[in-house]
Amino acid sequence: MRLKELAQHLGLSQTTVSRALNGYPEVNEATRHRVSEAAARLGYRPNASALRLATGRAGAVGMVLRGSEEFGPHTSEFLGGLGGRMADAEIDLLVTTVASQHDEMAAYRRLAASQKVDAVVLHSPTLRDERAELLLDLGIPFVLHGRTEIGRPVPWLDIDNEGALERATNHLLDLGHRRIALLNGLKGQTFVEHRERGYRQALAARGIGFDKTLMGNSIFTDEVAFRLAQSMLELRPRPTAFLAGSMMTALGVFRAIRQAGLQLGQDVSMIAHDDVFPYLNADNMYPTMSTTRSSMRQAGTRIAELIGQILAGKPAEQIHELWPVELVLRESSGPAPAR
Amino acid sequence: MRLKELAQHLGLSQTTVSRALNGYPEVNEATRHRVSEAAARLGYRPNASALRLATGRAGAVGMVLRGSEEFGPHTSEFLGGLGGRMADAEIDLLVTTVASQHDEMAAYRRLAASQKVDAVVLHSPTLRDERAELLLDLGIPFVLHGRTEIGRPVPWLDIDNEGALERATNHLLDLGHRRIALLNGLKGQTFVEHRERGYRQALAARGIGFDKTLMGNSIFTDEVAFRLAQSMLELRPRPTAFLAGSMMTALGVFRAIRQAGLQLGQDVSMIAHDDVFPYLNADNMYPTMSTTRSSMRQAGTRIAELIGQILAGKPAEQIHELWPVELVLRESSGPAPAR
DNA sequence: TTTGAATTTGAAATCGCTTTGAATAATTCG
DNA sequence: CGAATTATTCAAAGCGATTTCAAATTCAAA
Predict the structure, then answer these.
(1) N or C, which end of chain B has less CB nearby within 10 Å?
(2) Which nt has its C1' nearest the CA of B16?
(3) Could you tell me if A132 and A83 lie in one domain?
């Protein structure tokens, strides 16, 4: 069913039908009613490509994912939130997967040149993110999930990683811990640097030296975390507490602690960052896990809204949101063992 | 940069430029070279909407996800595989998220009517899947990940869930287990029914009665699995083995076993189905987990190829692939305890 | 009634590309 | 050398919507 046929069927011009359906005021109410009734009955929907060509709007938002690494649980939670809200606005989500960093830049260029999307969601930034530079240069609107320090104004939404780690570390210090290990993500990524800052600040405020053997930088899988934690537990004196970068990391650390014959929450404490996965609940772990918590899904939802604002013309400089992070204390964090 | 401008710049007609870039034979090699060089230098890329409108092809494949429930780790693995292969073919992936079953049907209708996609990937089917019926009626090409029994030919790719569970159950029976619990997905879904069939067949072949208190149907999260396993372990005589539907389920069962003061692999055995998540490795669990294994990501990759074949005109009746499932024995499955 | 304004409708241009059908230039062949 | 191919190129017609500009109709005021 095309607009043309619908118009013919109704004995009207395409112009009038189009106007009626798009809610323009200069059309008789009776006609409008007749048109929308017929459209609904015949299941008419404008052809997306034609509409896009005519309006110049793509009606889609793009997101580029780096192949295997990035399609983890974090991303899917985020996408769930983002996609949900965008569906409400009848905006499509165009997902592109790429293999390498280089391909990623090319992918943005392609998206821009072919005008497939009206905006882009950028994520997992580094401190000096060249993708953000590129998008600014290309003039394609975007919202960054995270922050970068490229010296140009970028619209962003981020959680307060620095504050979160400062509080978590402080809490462990209050409990008497002095050797606190930090299992962080890969260096270079902004959130990793921010978390390290928070951690160091808390230590420095108490005059506790930074020990680099207690810091690990890796991807967030239980396997790698297990190995890192295992070797850290062999240090003497060994760490009495862990700050885990994700729930997957926490699982690995947990395994290492158990295998070393130690008790989580007594011999060793842990606070993990929880992005709120519906299938991995800190409350259901044994012992229950103390966490710094911030919902990835909610961030996705909100970013969809911010994209909407950008497209509606809100100046990019006015878009930045820093979300506080909850510290939820449960059984996995207890007083440092007497020695 | 538009085709028109590029043509003007070169002193050629749009026709020739278009043909040169699209590899038509009737264009002088020298001209073609000149054109593609200029196109590359000026960064020309055809406008996607215009191209789609002119060719009638959308250059995109759609996938509808049911909001929160479905955006789990399974889906993201699958999407990773699917998207990767589709990117090679320069085909976009249009992801739509919906809240309810009803919305999902509407979403397919919309995709069809607005011609946003050339084909659709359908997944998580029920035995009588009405979405498959709808897609057939709408005449929109698709490939089903899984199977359905609606009596009309549907192109599909599936793993041999029935065979997998029959073998896993048989293995446990060989080890002397007689009370084997099955933690399956929600009734109605095809793979759930298939797994149950395999399980029942193995039991029946040894003359062992089916005990419905040993069967659980739920979503695959560790939380629910924990509760189910916990209550099953309170039965007397209690189950000596578990068949877990997913790795998340396995985590929950594991927790229940430990909490009951039992030893996995000795007091109680378990074989879990492993969709091969990079961040949850059966080999790295403690004890290592026996699994029925089949890569979700690979399935996604292959489905992208099948979609390609369908769009290239291969008859849908010729497209069905049944993948065998590996049984990988590790430490979590041992002989039934003497009693 | 006329007339001027306000409503309502339509014809045609436009978006940026592909493709058909025709025209021109270059080759080949008898 | 002229006719018949063959190789190149181009003008113009779509694709299916929106939107501009003009026309027709209705209505109210003079």
Answers:
(1) C
(2) D9
(3) yes
